[in-house]
Amino acid sequence: MIVNMARSATAEQIQHVIDRIKECGFQAHVIQGEERTIIGAVGNSNRRGEIEALRAAPGVADVIQIAHPFKLVSSQLRKTRTVVDVSGVQIGSGEVVVMAGPCSVESEDQLMETARAVKAAGANMLRGGAYKPRTSPYDFQGLGVEALRFLQKARNETGLPIVTEVMSEGDVEIVTEYADMLQVGARNMQNFSLLRKLATAPRPVLLKRGPSATVKEWMLAAEYLLAGGNPNVVLCERGIKTFETATRNTLDLAAVALAKELSHLPVVADPSHGTGLRSLIVPMSKAAVAAGADGLIIEVHPCPERALSDGPQSLDLAGFSALMKEFRRAQEVEAYESAGVLV
Ligand code: PEP
Ligand code: MN
Q1: Nearest to 286, CA basis, from 267, 271, 308, 307
Q2: pLDDT digits (tens, 9 = 90+) for 119-144
Q3: Which end is more exposed in the chain, N or C (fewer Cβ atoms within 10 Å of the end residue's Cβ)?
Q4: How many C-beta atoms lie closer than 10 Å to residue 242's C-beta?
Q5: Residue 94 burial (CB < 10 Å; 0-12/13-18/19+)?
Q6: Among protein residues, the one whose CA lies closest to atom 10 of ligand 1
Q7: Helix-strand-coil percent breakdown of the chain, rounded to 5?
């Protein structure tokens, strides 16, 4: 339930509503808007009637029911869009944020070469897996802490914030030490004990949609993070399993647009995992941005044919640079258009 306070509500009246919400066994989430305060009552209690009755309390404008089971994630609760700050990079601010780098960190040289190239091409963040969720136990599993050290070196040299996957609860502390943003992999989207742990981590989280997860399940996974105390969550559509076999996954761009409608959180798209095909990365990146994506996460490798994971869906350095040039050109045209220079 949402308690909308009147514009004229006093600090005492707001505090009274917060106290009543807590008394009734709910958590009170206070959102201080520019004009008015909104208080979300979330949790599990059979005293909803008493929250509804707060309509009669002084300073309360309205009490409304949140239509979805995901309360804190819902755009009904927060009208202004959340901007997530990742060590100075703002995701959701209107500028498309590009995270680029190898699927797996394979060596210091491979990572440093990629980091320098994606930085020069205009990427905003560096991605790279240290702990890899692989379908087969015989495939390359990642370099672990050694990879985290290479990522740190790459950040120190290029200034690009790092996003990397944390696969298990036991790794949260060490990954937090090195990374600017913690990625929850698609296969872990419903690992609820990991989500609970990440809810208390002092880092923003990139929450990938599970390959078979509905949009509602994805939003509820994000709700675990927000309800547990971490408001800095970015949703990532990375393709879902369908009957189609021509692409590795089906990049669900309707889900990008829908997630932006349902939620105030930023949404990014992953055209690499979403298609599995290098040739589709450029068109699907453009399509994702057209659908409202706040950013892209793209796999880039200096020599994709030698990649230890996901080579076929990785751009090479020149390919990534070409993609970024196209983007910059499109953004410039847009800027000229909105300034009325082009008609
Ligand atoms: C990755 O980013 O390399 C990765 C394993 O992604 P996903 O969890 O979406 O498969
Ligand atoms: Mn990958």
Answers
A1: 271
A2: 999 999 999 999 999 999 999 999 99
A3: C
A4: 12
A5: exposed
A6: 186
A7: 40, 20, 40
Q: Are the beta carbons of 181 and 125 closer than 8 angstroms?
A: yes
pLDDT digits (tens, 9 = 90+) for 310-332: 999 999 999 999 999 998 787 77
Q: Which of 21-35, 57-71, 202-216 has the highest mean pLDDT?
A: 202-216
Strands 162-165 and 181-184 come out as parallel
Beta strands in 89-228 (DSSP E): 89-91, 97-101, 125-127, 162-165, 181-184, 205-208
* Token pair for 300: 């880039």
Q: What's the Rg (C-alpha) of the chain?
A: 21
Among 238, 250, 251, say which to mutate for ligand 1: greatest number of ligand atoms within 8 Å of CB: 238
Mutation probe of ligand 1 site: the residue of 103, 134, 140, 281 with most atoms within 8 A of C-beta: 103
Tokens of 292: 């409202």
Q: CA 254, CA 288: separation in Å to the nearest integer?
A: 9
